């Protein structure tokens, strides 16, 4: 196992060069053309079979080993965010208003590093490794679209792996937990229709702002009073749009937000209670209400056997690391769609370094991470992939 880590460490400068190049040239969802071109060309130079233009910019590289064995899917995301970078780094974004503020630049570099390591041992490799470089992870449906375009058809993958460098935790920390580790994500849109009027004569209007205020407050009780206390859930209102001037009661209010849950049962309870509360409050206020719910991602659930093997490999490679076997977050990830079809493990790899001010949270203009994580991640994923292939052979 140590040979994988040693090779990753010897490739450290290349990993950093890839990462910084991607970071300087960030691209938004379904527009990752430059990134995809570099990835495809690099995989082809390694000798992998490559498919491009899947879901616009997705890339798939297939590495066939010299020994019979199963097929393993490993996925890496590519898209950046519409954020103005404020890090001041020498390798800061050159694309105005676009930034790799979540670490996907690192993920692409790690993916190429894993391919490089496993390709160097291809004659001894059992089975097939399929590297998926996915566009549009940031809530734009990239995984669903790749699946809809047939990327899993006839693939026959028995296991999957994914990862996220994690700036909420320091270097030398790993989150490898079985079961649900990232929440399912739902978007809701609530439109309240009242009757507008003069602010001085509220009795002649049907005030949608009053209804909206009561609705927002009441919905905050759902997770504390309708869910099992041992379950987790989030209801967050993030958009309130109403009115145009100070002395007019508007005729409508729009509310938007997100629901996060770790189980389907909790998700359905929250949605049903939001409908009941919204209809009841708006009816009492003399208003009408329209509700729409859009599922963004399901819960991301780690397969127990795959996760146990990944944790075992991690312990062997990094005996001095802290390994958190219960790590869960309310963030969502569309790797969940792949893992619904192909059971696997999603790894969290600590990447922050507060001593160097590399500890800003994800999706922040100051986001940056300690690049020492790159060989750690590449070595770990390559070692886990190899062990999975050997076990399944």
Describe the model:
- This protein is of the alpha/beta class and 393 residues long.
- It folds into two domains: 275 residues, 3-Layer(aba) Sandwich (Aminopeptidase); 114 residues, Alpha-Beta Plaits (2-Layer Sandwich).
- It contains eleven helices and 16 strands.
- A hairpin with a 3-residue loop joins strand 1 and strand 2.
- The protein is elongated and about 80 Å long.
- The protein starts with a helix and ends with a helix.
CATH class of the largest domain: Alpha Beta
* Strand order across the largest sheet: 1-2-4-3-5-16-6-15
Count of individual helical segments? 11
In the CATH hierarchy, the third-tier topology of the largest domain is known as Aminopeptidase
Strand content: 25-35%
Q: Provide the low-confidence segments as ranges.
A: none
Total domain modules: 2
SSE pattern, N- to C-terminal:
HHHEEEHEHEEEEEHHEEEHEEHEHEH
Number of strands: 16
Major β-sheet annotation: 8 strands, mixed
Please identify the structural class as seen in this structure. alpha/beta
């Amino acid at each position: 196992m140590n040979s994988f880590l040693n090779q990753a460490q010897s490739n450290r400068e290349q990993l950093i060069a890839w990462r910084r190049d991607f970071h300087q040239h960030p691209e938004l969802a379904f527009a990752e053309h430059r990134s995809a071109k570099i990835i495809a060309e690099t995989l082809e130079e390694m000798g992998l079979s490559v498919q491009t233009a899947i879901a616009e910019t997705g890339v798939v590289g297939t590495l066939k080993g010299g020994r019979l064995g199963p097929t393993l899917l490993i996925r890496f995301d590519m898209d950046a965010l519409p954020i103005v970078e404020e890090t001041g780094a020498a390798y800061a974004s050159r694309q105005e208003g676009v930034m790799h503020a979540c670490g996907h630049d690192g993920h692409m570099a790690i993916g190429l590093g894993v391919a490089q390591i496993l390709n160097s041992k291809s004659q001894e490799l059992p089975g097939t490794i399929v590297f998926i470089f996915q566009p549009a992870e940031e809530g734009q449906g990239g995984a669903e679209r790749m699946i809809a375009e047939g990327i899993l058809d006839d693939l026959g993958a028995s296991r999957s792996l994914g990862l996220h460098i994690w700036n909420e935790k320091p270097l030398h920390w790993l989150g490898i937990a079985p079961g649900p580790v990232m929440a399912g994500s739902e978007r809701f849109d609530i439109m309240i229709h009242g009757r507008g009027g003069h602010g001085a004569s509220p009795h002649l209007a049907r005030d949608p702002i009053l209804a909206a205020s009561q609705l927002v407050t009441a919905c905050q009780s759902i997770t504390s009073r309708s869910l099992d206390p041992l379950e987790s859930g989030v209801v967050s209102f993030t958009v309130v749009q109403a009115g145009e001037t100070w002395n007019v009661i508007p005729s409508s209010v729009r509310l938007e937000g997100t629901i996060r849950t770790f189980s389907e049962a909790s998700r359905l309870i929250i949605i049903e209670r939001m409908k009941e509360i919204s209809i009841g409050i708006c009816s009492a206020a003399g208003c009408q209400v329209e509700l729409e719910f859009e599922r963004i991602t399901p819960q991301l659930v780690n397969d127990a056997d795959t996760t146990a093997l990944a944790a075992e490999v991690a312990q062997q490679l990094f005996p001095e690391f802290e390994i958190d076997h219960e790590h869960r977050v309310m963030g969502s990830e569309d790797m969940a769609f792949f893992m619904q079809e192909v059971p696997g493990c999603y790894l969290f790899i600590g990447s922050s370094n507060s001593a160097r001010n590399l500890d800003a949270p994800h999706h922040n203009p100051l986001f940056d991470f300690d690049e020492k994580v790159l060989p750690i991640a590449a070595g770990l994923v390559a070692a886990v992939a190899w062990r999975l292939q050997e076990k399944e052979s």
